[in-house]
């Protein structure tokens, strides 16, 4: 109270100011917490150390090709040797309508020349070896390619990450690094041999959007590679990871996989990228937060008025005492 008197402000003004600050803080907290996307872990499509059970098997995944599992470190899809190919495929299909898959991986080796790369798959087929980064061509579903060797694609910096939607008929365009049927992609200079944990995060909302984010520059700093609207993937598809080395080679390591089932508590579906979040915020503001938020605003209004009235009474009594 001593500070209030020395500042020259009336008690009424301070009462109104404090009430206004409190009101502003509550409004801000409501906006910052407007994240309506919830998640449920999908154990059937996640992988973590030691990867295998006591019988040296995995309950949820199959391994094949040249894949080597080192329980305390990684699943090595290919070693740094020529003509290697390896794969990991889920045993159960991914049937979630909306999902997010985040995985940590590492592409590295000793040579100055290296290749070819690795891929993530969400396809109707599973565990079929082939020429597309270790998996079969003419796939049906999504192929996501981390290509480290440039064949013939002028003006593009490698490593290059690209996505392709296969319909069972289209072939991957090896000659031009997938350009012919590319859905979206981005250059990721520094992804190979990065000195921080390299991660990718793929988010899918059915018939709405598909988005890929990468972490390879700084820890906890995600870079959006692409975000594509109106994407439809098979409702029943398997999750796979493959890698391939030809005349050139590299280590392609899978460190961990974390899969989640996503759902929104907001009837307004999220859109891709930042725009989706903005739309959710606008929808929330239009709804006004319901009766609970209306009641809170009324309480704050009463508190503000009460603070102002008490301050006015105190000021009036002070002026009356000063007359005598």
TrEMBL record:
Record localization: Membrane
Molecular function GO terms recorded: D-mannose binding
Q: Which InterPro entries match?
A: ConA-like_dom_sf, Intracellular_Lectin-GPT, Lectin_leg
Which stretch is the leader sequence?
1-29
Any single GO CC term annotated in Swiss-Prot or TrEMBL for this entry: COPII-coated ER to Golgi transport vesicle
Record's keyword annotation contains Transmembrane helix: yes
One BP annotation, GO: endoplasmic reticulum to Golgi vesicle-mediated transport
Q: Which Pfam families match?
A: Lectin_leg-like
Entry keyword Membrane: yes
Q: Which organism is it from?
A: Pyronema omphalodes (strain CBS 100304)
User: Which segments constitute the L-type lectin-like domain?
Assistant: 39-262
Domain of life, source organism:
Eukaryota
Question: What stretches pass through the bilayer?
Answer: 291-315
Q: Which keywords label this protein?
A: Lectin, Membrane, Signal, Transmembrane, Transmembrane helix
Coarse class of the protein's main subcellular location: membrane
- Could you tell me what this protein is called? Similar to L-type lectin-like domain-containing protein C126.08c acc. no. O94401
Report the membrane topology from the UniProt record.
Answer: Single-pass type I membrane protein
């Amino acid at each position: 109270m001593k500070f209030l008197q020395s500042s020259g402000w009336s008690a009424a003004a301070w009462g109104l100011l404090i009430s206004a600050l409190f009101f502003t803080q509550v409004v801000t907290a409501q906006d910052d917490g407007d994240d309506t996307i919830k998640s449920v872990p999908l154990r059937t499509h996640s992988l973590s150390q030691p990867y295998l059970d006591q019988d040296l098997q995995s309950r949820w995944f199959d391994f094949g090709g040249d894949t080597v599992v080192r329980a305390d470190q990684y699943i090595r899809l290919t070693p740094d040797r020529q003509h290697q190919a390896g794969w990991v495929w889920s045993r159960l299909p991914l049937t979630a309508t909306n999902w997010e898959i985040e995985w940590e991986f590492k592409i590295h080796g000793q040579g100055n020349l290296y290749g070819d790369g690795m891929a993530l798959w969400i396809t109707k087929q599973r565990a079929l070896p082939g020429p597309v980064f270790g998996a079969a061509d003419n796939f049906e579903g999504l192929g996501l390619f981390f290509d480290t060797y440039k064949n013939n694609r002028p003006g593009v910096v490698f490593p290059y990450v690209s996505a392709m939607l296969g319909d069972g008929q289209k072939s991957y365009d090896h000659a031009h690094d997938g350009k012919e049927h590319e859905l979206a992609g981005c250059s990721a200079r520094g992804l190979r041999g990065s000195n921080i944990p390299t991660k990718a995060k793929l988010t899918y909302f059915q018939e709405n959007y598909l988005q890929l984010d990468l972490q390879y520059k700084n820890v906890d700093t995600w870079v959006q590679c692409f975000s594509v609207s109106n994407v439809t993937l098979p409702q029943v598809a398997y999750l796979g990871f493959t890698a391939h080395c030809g005349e050139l080679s590299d280590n392609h390591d899978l460190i961990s996989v974390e899969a989640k089932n996503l759902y929104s508590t907001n009837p307004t579906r999220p859109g891709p990228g930042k725009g989706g979040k903005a739309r959710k915020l606008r929808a929330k503001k239009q709804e006004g937060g319901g009766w609970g938020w209306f009641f809170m605003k009324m309480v704050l209004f009463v508190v503000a008025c009460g603070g102002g009235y008490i301050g006015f009474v105190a000021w009036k009594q002070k002026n009356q005492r000063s007359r005598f």
